[in-house]
Amino acid sequence: MAVRKVPNGKWLVNIQPGGRRGRRIRKSFLTKANADAFARRAYIETENLAIGQAAALSVSQLIDLFRDRYASVRFRGYRFEKYRIEKLKTYFLEHNDRAIGAVKLADGEEFISYRKANGIKPTTISRDLNTLKRIFSWAVENDYIPYSPLAKLKGFPHTTRIRWLTESECKVLLEKAKDLDPSLWTTIFIALNTGFRLSNIQQLRGSDISDSFITALKTKSGKPYDVPIATNLQDLLSKFKTTSERILDTRDIDRRFRKIVKAAGLYTSADDPMKVTFHTLRHTFAAYWLQKNVPIYTVSKWLGHSSVAMTEKVYGHLSQSHHALEIQKAQGIGESALTLGEHYLIR
């Protein structure tokens, strides 16, 4: 699907759904989401895939459609997503490549059992399962099937320990960045104060910044979201508002960030599951506000999660301090009530 941004700031759809003999379609839109939606709809209409016909597609054919029309233009880490997509296709070709309209919840459970029996780690199975569910959700969005049979399929509970930085570690990291790589200091500072993923940071433009909010346009869900600009970030961002170009230097960012981490004394090893990566800055943003007793629903919105359940799964344990504070307040009220009630106890 050819959707690209043109110099006037709009998103141009340039497609030929019917192949070489098909009619070429060129149309521009103000947002990428609208452009993508139009392009998907054009493919569906051109191929005349009604729900009944589309449901006859096999799972492997659906996976091919998802890969060609959506995944390759949506995901920053497409190299890894492509690997998972190919694994899923291979599994269904070897086992039960039935029509997508005939897929049941039990097929998803069988996939989990098969992967477990082959010694695959739960985290890997969960990633594969999330990709499979995403493919079927995409099929629903595009009217291939009326509902996803895998929507209620449960994977494994999130057990990975989350690494975030303490305030003192943030201070050291920023100090080293300012000394060794000032442009990266700006990137780290913005990431710590917005919780943006690296893909959001890389795409950030001056036009995404307003007086009170900074907008993440490139997201996993495809839905933009806003993060309120903290006071200490306003002065830094104000100088970027006048440009529509990308504002941060993110070239070779993994190597540069690793160098700063080592200089700050935070490096452990490449195999350490608790190693500090750029994504650690996002965890730090979430952990900071949850530990400041900001409601998890609010933090979920700031992170751009599609539901608060996702935030609970990853960060729920960090909001326990909020519940502890609430029980302390309640306990104080309860003690007062109990003292008052002693006068009325039956002797």
Question: What descriptive keywords fit this protein?
Answer:
347 residues; mainly alpha; hpI Integrase, Chain A; three-stranded antiparallel β-sheet; 5 strands; globular
CATH homologous superfamily placement of the largest domain: Intergrase catalytic core
In DSSP terms, counting alpha (H) and pi (I) runs of 4 or more, how many helices? 15
Gross morphology: globular
Provide the domain count.
2
Q: Which percent bin holds the helix content?
A: 40-55%
Give a short account of the largest sheet. Answer: 3 strands, antiparallel
Radius of gyration: 24 Å
On the 0 to 100 scale, the average pLDDT is: 80
Q: What is the fold-level CATH name, i.e. the topology of the largest domain?
A: hpI Integrase, Chain A
Q: Explain this structure to me?
A:
There is one protein chain. The protein is globular. The protein has 347 residues and is mainly alpha-helical. It has two domains: 3-141, no CATH class; 167-322, Orthogonal Bundle (hpI Integrase, Chain A), CATH 1.10.443.10. It has a three-stranded antiparallel β-sheet, with helices on one face. Strands 4-5 form a two-stranded antiparallel sheet. Helix content is 54%, strand content 6%. The longest helix has 22 residues, at 320-341. The protein is built from 15 helices and five strands. Mean pLDDT is 80; it is low at 333-347. Helix 7 runs antiparallel to helix 8 (182-194).
